[in-house]
């Protein structure tokens, strides 16, 4: 696309040199039209960032399908070879002395430190550590999770992989989701942030016999703090395909399971996930009253006085609704202790929704590079 625009500009310059403009009411019409086109194309080239380019051509991209996956990883050896190549690129660090110079021992199928001689297995320090499942099963599970916008239940993955142990597959999927969460924890949200709390239905065996409450204190509802980047559109950006969309452009999202929604805990989690120079907008819940202490600014909107509250905080409400649909539609019951892992998967794929066929390779890296 960029090359095409540049060729058009060069072609226009060539036409201006070779062809003579005509006059209408004393004005050189052809020259005016050409200069107008050059100006508009120049603006497009200047404003089109890599991110907008990916968003514009999202429908033209495709994920790695099943046939491509089988061609790339036909057997266990191909999976081991790819896993080793990725780990060698990332580097192997000795747990004893901290050195990164190793050589591969074929007879032991492990790395050996050149400094102290300590051996490290290929799986050591990765999400695959202490797992007896084959590399092929791990790769197939990662492929299944990255080929859909939603997710798969552990029982469905067990059927697809034709494995006899449900517990082993369930544990593998949660290790992958934990790796997704660790990867997202490296990055902080910036600029403009929408902030709200969501309540997700979970199962808590400890409070099953207690008298059930309703609302914020209900034992069936787990509290989740949701933060999402929401940058206001510039007037010229609102035209075209964004004309009927909200006045804000969505970025990355983070969801954090909370024990309570007191201002102290909210500030603590927000400080870890949001840069200090960011600005936040939220509803009038009292737990957000002290956000100005850690952020550049905080705007409070009383949504109870507005009929259409989703127009004020459009993207955070959309993210909460989408997450609930994904979890309730595929997982009939979620344990309170494991809700964060499921939210990690949703946020990981939401934040990388334009990665397309690179998402699988990025997940392999996330499973290797845990620290």
Give the topology.
Layout: H1 2-18, E1 23-24, E2 27-28, H2 29-47, H3 50-56, H4 66-72, H5 76-90, E3 102-105, E4 110-113, E5 119-121, H6 135-146, H7 154-161, H8 166-184, E6 192-201, E7 221-232, E8 248-258, H9 263-273, E9 279-282, E10 297-300, H10 314-330, H11 339-351, H12 359-368
Parallel strand pairs: 6-9, 9-10
Antiparallel strand pairs: 1-2, 3-4, 4-5, 6-7, 7-8
Oligomer: single chain
Helix content: 40-55%
Compute the number of helices: 12
Shape: globular
Give the tags.
371 residues; alpha+beta; 12 helices; single chain; five-stranded mixed beta sheet
Give a structural overview.
The protein is of the alpha+beta class and 371 residues long. Helices cover 42% and strands 15% of the residues. It is built from twelve helices and ten strands. Strands 8-7-6-9-10 form a five-stranded mixed β-sheet, with helices on both faces. The chain has a three-stranded antiparallel β-sheet with strand order 3-4-5, with no helix packed on it. The chain has a two-stranded antiparallel sheet with strand order 1-2. A hairpin with a 5-residue loop joins strand 4 and strand 5. The two termini are 38 Å apart. The relative contact order is 0.12. About 8% of the residues have low confidence.
Nutshell version of this structure?
The protein is of the alpha+beta class. It has helices spanning 2-18, 29-47, 50-56, 66-72, 76-90, 135-146, 154-161, 166-184, 263-273, 314-330, 339-351, 359-368, and strands at residues 23-24, 27-28, 102-105, 110-113, 119-121, 192-201, 221-232, 248-258, 279-282, 297-300.
